[in-house]
From TrEMBL:
Pfam name, any one: p450
Protein name: Unannotated protein
Record organism: freshwater metagenome
Entry GO MF terms: cholest-4-en-3-one 26-monooxygenase activity; heme binding; iron ion binding; steroid hydroxylase activity
Family membership: Belongs to the cytochrome P450 family.
Length: 218
């Protein structure tokens, strides 16, 4: 199984870094201490797996969902092709639209009232990011794909603070490069099916199974 292979691989890297003054992310995770305690091997395996998934699957799903959204909204595609300075805001809209991370569990650190609901200290809270990113109290026409949306205070990378995605700058850079190259190199980019695009099953990281397209190279 892939998870066993990953465990064997990462534990080899962990043992190479344990007790050494490395500054790479795995070294920082392995050698971190809080009040004299460090992470267990199981904790480290899952933390590093989360980094792997967060740095791979999520960006791929935004690429596929963003491509589909542009092709399903030809006015937005034409707007972007005519003014590539809109690409940064288009990427933020793709992130809001895709919301590849579906949920995250958190533990309340203190009593708080949210929208009239009482949350107690140590209560477990399930955050539903796609719901937040379609909140009509925050976004005008939340179910419309709008590459000029401003402001666009989505939570595709989580809320700001200690839980904000550490890979957010890399993800934005990858998306910028990919869509720049795709729109510069391809003409007549179209969906190759008129059937509904199917999402993969799951309850954590979700995206489209496939986005078949046709194009002509410039």
């Amino acid at each position: 199984m892939a998870v066993i292979g990953w465990n064997d691989y990462i534990m080899k890297k962990v043992n190479e870094r344990r007790g050494k003054d490395g500054q790479d992310l795995v070294s920082l995770i392995v050698n971190a201490e809080w009040e004299g305690e460090s992470l267990s091997d199981v904790d480290i395996m899952f933390e590093t797996m989360l980094v792997l998934v967060g740095g791979d699957e999520t960006t791929r799903h935004v690429i596929s969902a963003g491509t589909a959204a542009l092709l399903q909204n030809p006015d937005q595609l034409a707007l972007l092709k005519n003014d590539m300075s809109l690409l940064p805001s288009a990427i933020e809209e793709m992130l809001r639209w895709a919301s590849p991370i579906r949920n995250m569990n958190r533990t309340a650190t203190q009593d708080v009232i949210v929208n009239g609901m009482q949350i107690r200290e140590n209560d477990r809270v399930l955050l539903l990011y796609p719901s937040a990113n379609r909140d009509a109290k925050v976004f005008d026409n939340p179910h419309s794909f709008d590459i000029t949306r401003t402001p666009n205070d989505h939570v595709a990378f989580g809320a700001y603070g200690r839980h904000h995605c550490l890979g957010a700058p890399l993800a934005r850079l990858e998306l910028k490069i990919l869509f720049e190259e795709m729109l510069n190199r391809f003409d007549n980019l179209q969906l190759a099916t008129d059937q509904p695009l199917i999402s993969r099953r799951g309850n954590f990281v979700l995206g489209l199974n496939e986005v078949p397209v046709t194009f002509t190279a410039k």
